[in-house]
User: Fold Polysaccharide biosynthesis protein C-terminal domain-containing protein from Aegilops tauschii subsp. strangulata.
Amino acid sequence: MEMAALIIGSGTLMDIVGIPVDSPMRAPAEQFLTLRAYGAPPVVVALAAQGAFRGFMDTKTPLYAVVAGNLVNAILDAIFIFPLGLGVSGAALATVTSEYLAAIILLWKLNNELVLFSWNVIGGDIIRYLKSGALLIARTIAVILPLWLSTSLAARQGPVPMAGYEISLQVWLTISLLNDALALAGQALLASEYAKGNYKQARLVLYRVLQIGGVTGLALAATLFLGFGYLTLLFTDDPAVLDVAQSGVWFVTITQPINAIAFVFDGLYYGVSDFGYAAYSTLFAGVVASAFLLVVAPNFGLGGVWAGLTLFMGLRAVAGFWRLGSKGGPWEIVWSKTD
Assistant:
């Protein structure tokens, strides 16, 4: 369904984002989106499989699959984009190929752990799964909304600001997602102790993951502040684009500790099945940040965009601390019960 929607609606989506038909970005953007749409099925399957492996507390298999996929992606990028002259289309084809490879590896390994295809449908479990899934879909939409809106606002400023913004955003996302490893580890460990009723150990996991997340965020911030200029040179040698990209250095560095805490809290929510709060708090943060972007970014340009994304991550981190101190829900059991 995602693949069909992206292929059929690629032009409409470009209109919504704000890229006019006569823009030099329009044709390559549509081309890229249409080809990347074919990667939607393996992406969804791979994400579901990774969730299953987390349930088995197996983080190695997804790592190997993703590394293999990304390695193939990098090799094919180097071949398709320049030697074969495929450009943006080559980048899309390389990514789609790597996504199918990762999904196949994960399904092959998962087949050793459980029955992948079965006619035995357990109604109660399906309903519970769909309920949790719906909450997480709402959360995902809330995460994507500010990012989509910030990209749209940057695109409306023209190709050069858009290129510089995209470089800063990719560095920000790549470094920030290193903290996702902490979230995954925290989720698996907390879920295990919580299910066993080892609440003292669960509290220890919570403390340690948050502490490590904060320290990691500060270390990443310091590293990026010193090395951000060198990182941007890996993307382009265009002086105008580099100026725009390097103007986002404060955003990229200052938000790292905030991002680390926000990502860690995501893992902790899932560890105790606190899906409702994860969805509603992220939705609140997304709506507030999106409203801020719509008001501020048109007047302050990329500075307003960076501020809006910082607000979004900050609200998510604050919501996490708020939840830990609130009464009710699974966290009250963690705090009040003893082993």
In short: The chain has a mean pLDDT of 89. The chain has two domains: 1-112, 123-336.
